């Protein structure tokens, strides 16, 4: 049974969507709970103000049999909700629990005894809340205005604002939303970073071990080839063996550079690409046409030639595989501002847009054979070691794909 490597990334994408969905549900749940809590507190404050208003009304209509202590106790209990008492002409009669712009040195402040600044401040608060409407009409439509009858057909109007506690709590759902989003983002990127760091350690260890394992047989082959030369073997045979030994040495050198910062030098794009194509042209089908349409100006960049040639070989080989060994590969280059770019375009089967990023993930492949490591190594070489970018520029199913490399200009 064939292991579906591409399916891993479909499941991973589904897993991310599930994670984000669960996070969104949790956020919505907590927002609903918080909003309901704020609404309940607002309702309780309104009920308290109705009781306060009723006590004020009864106190205004009190007779000798009225329990003044009880009514005064109810009125005095309001030490948190800002209240203004006014007549129909917006003239303020009393106030409570407002923080005034100027500090008053009065034990029990009375509106008429306040400074001009403080009186203007409270009057403005009331008029802003009233919006130029009649207080009688507001008491019937706005829950923050309550009408009380002080004596027959004479009314006063109580205007109250949300307490400081309620105002703070009303902001709580939004603060909670921001905190939860930040927390989810931190957790998400922490997991991604940890996973990437672990992958990097595995890559570095695997690459260096591969280079180490190749060293012994390469040394042995070099010795055997020298022995063949010394015993008079056919020179054409020993020359071909030497080419393969050199190739293996290059491969071992490439692997040894993964995981450590390679040395870079000023190289020219056209020349470096030409070297990698020279090797590939002799090893691919004659039905594949490779067109090199490089910029006439050979741009200089800082490169590790062995690693960059490896990237070009990987892109070329992938293009050949995507075309089934028959088609056209076009390689172009150019410069935009401070970036030098190289594009490899094929006429293969194309890549679905949803997989533009997945093709660079370890193990992702649609081929029956292969481990899907070539493009992963290419991405690491270009981005981590050369400070550039590699990505799928465009692709269309059944028509082909264009990979683009961007490198800082020297």
Q: Explain this structure to me?
A:
α1 runs antiparallel to α5 (164-230). The strands form three sheets. Strands 6-8-9-11-10 form a five-stranded mixed sheet, covered by helices on one side. It has a four-stranded antiparallel sheet with strand order 2-1-4-3, with helices on both faces. It has a two-stranded antiparallel ribbon with strand order 5-7. The model has no long low-confidence stretch (mean pLDDT 81). By secondary structure, it is an alpha+beta fold. The protein has nine helices and eleven strands. A hairpin with a 2-residue loop joins β8 (327-336) and β9 (339-346).
In short:
The chain has 410 residues and is an alpha+beta fold. It is built from nine helices and eleven strands.
What attributes does this structure have?
single chain, 410 residues, alpha+beta, five-stranded mixed sheet, 11 strands, 54% helix, rod-shaped
Blueprint (SSEs and pairs):
Layout: H1 5-60, H2 68-76, E1 83-86, E2 92-96, H3 116-130, H4 135-141, E3 145-151, E4 154-160, H5 164-230, H6 235-257, E5 265-268, H7 269-281, E6 288-293, E7 300-303, H8 305-322, E8 327-336, E9 339-346, H9 374-386, E10 389-396, E11 400-408
Parallel strand pairs: 6-8
Antiparallel strand pairs: 1-2, 1-4, 3-4, 5-7, 8-9, 9-11, 10-11
Helix pairs in contact: 1-2, 1-5, 5-6, 7-8, 8-9
């Amino acid at each position: 049974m064939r292991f579906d490597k591409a399916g891993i990334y479909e499941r991973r994408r589904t897993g991310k969507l599930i994670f984000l969905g669960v996070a969104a549900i949790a956020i919505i749940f907590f927002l609903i709970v918080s909003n309901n809590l704020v609404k309940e507190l607002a309702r309780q404050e309104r009920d308290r103000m109705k009781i306060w208003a009723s006590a004020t009304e009864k106190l205004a209509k009190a007779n000798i049999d009225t329990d003044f202590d009880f009514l005064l106790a109810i009125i005095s209990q309001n030490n948190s909700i800002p209240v203004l008492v006014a007549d129909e002409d917006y003239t303020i009669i009393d106030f409570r629990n407002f923080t005034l712009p100027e500090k008053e040195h009065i034990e029990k402040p009375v509106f008429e005894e306040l400074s001009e600044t403080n009186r203007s401040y409270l009057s403005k608060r009331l008029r802003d809340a009233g919006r130029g409407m009649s207080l009688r009409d507001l008491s019937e439509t706005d829950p923050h205005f309550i009408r009380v009858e002080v004596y027959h057909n004479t009314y006063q109007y109580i205007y109250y604002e949300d307490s400081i506690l309620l105002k703070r709590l009303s902001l709580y759902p939004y603060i909670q939303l921001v905190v939860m989003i930040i927390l989810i983002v931190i957790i998400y990127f922490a997991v991604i970073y940890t996973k990437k760091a672990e992958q990097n350690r595995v890559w570095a260890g695997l690459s260096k071990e591969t280079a180490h394992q190749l060293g012994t047989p390469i040394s042995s082959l070099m010795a055997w080839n020298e022995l063949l030369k010394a015993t008079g073997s056919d020179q054409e045979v020993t020359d071909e063996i030497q080419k393969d030994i050199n190739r293996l040495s290059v491969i071992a050198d490439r692997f040894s550079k993964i995981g450590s910062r390679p040395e870079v030098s000023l190289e020219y794009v056209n020349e470096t690409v030409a070297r990698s194509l020279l090797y590939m042209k002799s090893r691919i089908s004659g039905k594949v046409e490779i067109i090199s349409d490089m910029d006439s100006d050979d741009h200089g960049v800082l490169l590790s030639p062995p690693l960059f040639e490896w990237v070009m070989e990987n892109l070329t080989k992938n293009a050949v595989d995507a075309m089934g060994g028959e088609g056209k590969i076009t390689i172009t280059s150019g410069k935009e501002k401070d970036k030098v770019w190289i594009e490899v375009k094929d006429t293969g089967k194309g890549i679905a847009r949803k997989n533009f990023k997945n093709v660079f993930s370890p193990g992702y492949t649609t081929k029956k054979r292969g481990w899907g490591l070539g493009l992963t190594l290419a991405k690491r070489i270009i981005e981590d070691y050369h400070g550039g970018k590699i990505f799928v520029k465009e692709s269309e199913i059944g028509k082909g794909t264009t990979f683009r490399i961007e490198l800082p200009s020297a």
